[in-house]
TrEMBL record:
EC number: 2.7.13.3
UniProt cross-references to InterPro entries, sorted A to Z: HATPase_C_sf (IPR036890), HATPase_dom (IPR003594), His_kinase_dom (IPR005467), HisK_dim/P_dom (IPR003661), HisK_dim/P_sf (IPR036097), Histidine_kinase_KdpD (IPR052023), KdpD_sf (IPR038318), KdpD_TM (IPR025201)
Location within or outside the cell: Cell membrane; Membrane
Molecular-function GO term, any one: phosphorelay sensor kinase activity
Organism of derivation: Streptomyces malaysiense
GO cellular component, one term: cytoplasm
Membrane topology of the entry: Multi-pass membrane protein
Taxonomic lineage of the native organism: Bacteria, Bacillati, Actinomycetota, Actinomycetes, Kitasatosporales
SMART domains reported for this sequence: HATPase_c, HisKA
Name of protein: histidine kinase
Transmembrane stretches, start-end: 381-399, 411-440, 460-481
Keyword Phosphoprotein attributed: yes
Amino acid sequence: MARGKFRIYLGAAPGVGKTYAMLSEAHRRVERGTDCVVAFVEHHGRSRTEVMLHGLEQIPRKQIEYRRGVFGEMDVDAVLARRPQVALVDELPHTNIPGSRNAKRWQDVEELLAAGIDVVSTANIQHLESLGDVVESITGVRQQETVPDEIVRRADQIELVDMSPQALRRRMAHGNIYKPDKVDAALSNYFRPGNLTALRELALLWVADRVDEYLTEYRSEHRVSKIWGSRERIVVGLTGGPEGRTLIRRASRLAEKGAGGEVLAVYISRSDGLTSASPKELAVQRTLVEDLGGTFHHVVGDDIPAALLDFARGVNATQIVLGVSRRSSWQYVFGPGVGATVARDSGPDLDVHLITHDEVGKGRGLPVAARGARLGRARVIWGWLAGIGGPVLLTWLLSSVAPGLGLANDMLLFLTMTVAAALLGGLLPALASAVVGSALLNWYFTPPVHTWTIADPKNIVAIAVFFGVAVSVASVVDLAARRTHQAARLRAESEILSFLAGNVLRGETTLEALLDRVRETFGMESAALLERENDIAPWTCAGSVGPRPCTAPDAAEVDVPVGDHLTLALSGRVLPAEDRRVLAAFAAQAAVVLDRQRLQQKADEAKALAEGNRIRTALLAAVSHDLRTPLAGIKAAVTSLRSDDVEWSEADQAEFLAAIEEGADRLDHLVGNLLDMSRLQTGTVTPIIRETDLDEVIPMALGGVPEDRVDLDIPETLPMVDVDRGLLERSVANVVENAVKYSPPDEPVLVSASAIADRVEVRVVDRGPGVPDEAKSRIFEPFQRYGDSPRGAGVGLGLAVARGFAEAIGGTLDAEDTPGGGLTMVLTLPTAPGRCQEEPERTSAVTR
């Protein structure tokens, strides 16, 4: 029996309409005459979804008793007996009630498919088993019901049901997904815009990968070798050299310019196992490409260009990134090189980028100044071999294999050998070749042979000319090497000086970063900037990097004075004199950076003093008005009570006493906030952190507000938090008092709490006028009142103190809009170590 077709509507988040889309598909199939039944669909009380069930045949559910309750599950036997063409099965990851035919619903679906019944089902991206950890890190909720990825991947069709976070939140706010009493909690927790955006990205990427698998299978089945540029896929060819890091970064930037770009780094080694690549460098490049979101591949192939092109076409790449060849000009006689060959054979469907790179010595160091290293150690060795062994080998060949060529031809061949030695090894190997060649010419080829005498004076001139030409060619090659070395060195120095000048203008580099640059550039173990107050004072370290930095200039291998009382000290090796010029520029820059840092510190101190002056000025203004107002009221009431001119009734006396009590309470509140703000400004707040239950602290913080103005919802399953109880109580009290002040009398303020990942959030929700986005940050500044609040309403310190105390205990306090109007204060607190737990069904333990 043929297996049934499987179609899945995959939702980016709950509520996007996947069940509605499945039922719409069922109605279309029924209209076409398809035998379609509803095996199991849960509408969750959503009226629009429930209406879509009308007109569709529904298989009665199987009733199962479990723990004194009766639950309805899909009746697999009834569906198999009915044998429809298509069965609708909602909620694929659902866990069946114990006693059901299978433990999971996807296992029920597998039975229906095996029986030849087509199945249309639904699932959300967060229910895929491989994404469980990612979803938990985003939403803070661990999904208990999951479905193996392979089940979904085997589906014949996967249709993504998507919706923008803003549209989904509007649906939620309108009551189209959850009941009204759950809307606020859902919008504030799981259905945050950031959570929904992240889930949407997960769904799009997962489906895109599945589509890519379909495309790969199709190309393989139909043997399509031509590249289809469905999305940018960039292959980076690596040689194992340091330039590979530049190529990887450049390819990553190219991939970012296109939608869904992908980077694949490939290293091709020969089948004989011989390679000049550094395993350490390849490991570094593998880590780099993976950190940038790409993949690393190792391919074996003797023909590097062909293997690279085969790999690129096999992965349907659109671009290849290669580095410009590092070969010398003369080496091109052996072939055009990998880059040119790949560009020639790539065809019209592959773009090849040749990226320039500059390698000057090791890392970012300057070129080595040693004389013999100008042409490279390997070239010098080959030069000596050609200069000494070449004439000897040539003598043997001319004597035994091709005798009788004539002295002129012999001299030209020896001159060629000398030129080769000069090209390879420079001056000294060429001079050695000229001396050895002259001696061999005289002994073996100049009559009379096998003697050191020369019979014909013309031969003397010929040997002298030979020796002169050899020396001249060697000198020219050596001079070219010198100029090349100088140009490379000057270029490196100019780049370093340009870097320093740019940092001076931008003011970006810290002292430690600059010293680390010095240490890396010159290959030192440590670098330190030392200073002292006068000529006899001891040296102190202003900044250092590396192990065991120098504590005095005498202990350093290299020290560069900067002024009279500042010096840059390096340890590790002795630098040549030509490097000290650049090092002096580094030292001067280090002095500038040090001065800039100290000036910045003084500027920060001045700013703090200015802020303190501003606060003191505002405090004086507050004392002059806000504190004098309740004092004046108390003074007037007391004076009236003590007056003998008027006989006050008991009602009048009670009114005066109430005014005195109200004024005293206002004074106590204002003075308390002023003292709290002064503690925060002076840094004398020292929290005592310990494990605390929120249901022990938050009710105590509400003692200053009427009971009918606050609704409290603190779940009993909340984890413990690490806070200072007193500071938390003051912070919550100030936030709640502020919310009650601005909330309408008939709209109580809601104080709720919930656990999300490794934190607990306390949300204070009011239905007041709200605060515009541009003013949300200002309401936490000292002495700020929102709108046209009267001055008697306070000095504007409540929220500033609340945020200061929240940050002192390691939490945060932010403002958000309340769905439907109002302001929500979100107080985030760290959970106690080891107390984080999964998000279960919560019941309210503390209500008010």
